[in-house]
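Why run this: before we spend reagent on co-expression, it is cheaper to look at a predicted model of the complex and decide which construct boundaries make sense. The entries below are exactly what would go into the expression plan.
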Amino acid sequence: MITLSDLHKSFDGAPVLRGASLHVPRGSSLVIIGGSGTGKSVLLKCILGLVTPDSGRIEIDGQDATRGNRDALLSRFGMLFQGAALFDSLPVWQNVAFRLLRGPLKRPRRVAREIAIEKLRRVGLGPEVADRLPAELSGGMQKRVGLARAIAAEPEIIFFDEPTTGLDPIMAGVINALIREIVTEMGVTALTITHDMSSVRAIADRVAMLHAGKIRWQGPSGEMDATPDPYVQQFIHGQATGPIEALR
Amino acid sequence: MSLGRTLAAAPAAALGTLGRAVIRALGAAGRLTLFALAAVSHILRPPLYPREFFMALLHIGWLSLPVVGMTALFTGGALALQIYSGGARFNAEAVVPQIVAIGMVRELGPVLVGLMIAARVTSSIAAEIATMKVTEQIDALVTLSTDPMKYLVAPRLLAALLTVPLLVAVGDVIGIAGGYAVATSALGFNPIGYLANTLDFLEPLDVLSSLAKGCAFGGIAALMGCYCGMHSGRGAQGVGRATKSSVEAAAILILAANFLLTGVFFSA
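The model came back. Tokens follow.
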């Protein structure tokens, strides 16, 4: 469904992506792992068109994602941002129903609110949260609202950017379980970037490791622990010594 | 020998530095121009987001009234005192109503309102949009199929273009009222005569130039806030820099535009 071929991207002459290639089959959940600064977020932003790659090709269902109707393409996506990225000035329900209140998916306000409350319920939040402002919510609740917003317009593809960053282990487990449930229930194609191994084990059908701007290894999540790749082994076991240089 | 080479290279190095600065300035001017054109094109093309537009009208227009009113009131009063004491040196105390009117409407009203809007609105727009940028809310807008130029910039620019001329008009009236209050209560002017002199002396071109300046200054204030916010750097420092740069740039551009517009309206 999503195919990246030989993607390159540099910022001010510093290469971040150096020929990343990847395939995400329809309906699967792929998790990209890798250390900080390896280009995971840039890869995601290239697919969404938030960053323009220097070279390479991005295809979604065989179509070049950089050409054609961008709005139509984006309407197929949902995204959960690292910091939730909720709009401060809008109450929770309007954040969730943002897409349903404007643009081609616009619904009557009452219907949009009902859908927002239903999506909030799906992520474990009650209707009493609907009229609060994002700043009045805890980090875990904000993540849930972000998740509700990501699924509100029933997208085909959902991206999760570091979904458990900043959460305590219990709340991280709750968010991981929610993501897994929603991905399975909706049958969506999911692409997650994280360096949290508990997320990887909870969410992934397949795992890809990005290192130095390239996909170093990829395979089914069940094969990850057994792979002899020293980079993957160092990363998943959190070892300070190995082929991945760590600043001390 | 070495000193000679250094001396010979110094003019070239200075020219190089100057050249790079000029190229940077031209590049920034070009980017700002393209940004302004894109913003205007988004105003002209639907959809315009009504909620964001009305919120901008409220924030830029209505909520700026107290600060604009206070600024104009005290400036008008001080102007009356200055003209009276200055005019007394050559027996021209009687010109207070005329000079207050012309000073407020042609110059002080638009400039002071423009600068107050730069301080209050430009900084607020820049800080808000820059914070949205560093917290990925702008990226979130894009992923929700919403163009940030249309959702954030166009409503604010249109609201500023419409409300700042009105604020200038209000500022002009309040400034004249401030002069009137001081002149009639402390300087011994006849109230009816003061008003008659004020109205007789002002011409339609004075009012027109005041409103045109307000429109231009409003556009500059909103554009600079949006531009610096959208191009903010990372983190709290990035937001701080964007806010500071937006106010500095808006204030300087407002004063430059005031000079140009004054030349256009009154150079003949």
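Residues 1-45 of chain B form one domain. Residues 2-44 of chain B form the longest helix (43 residues). Bring this page to Monday's planning discussion.
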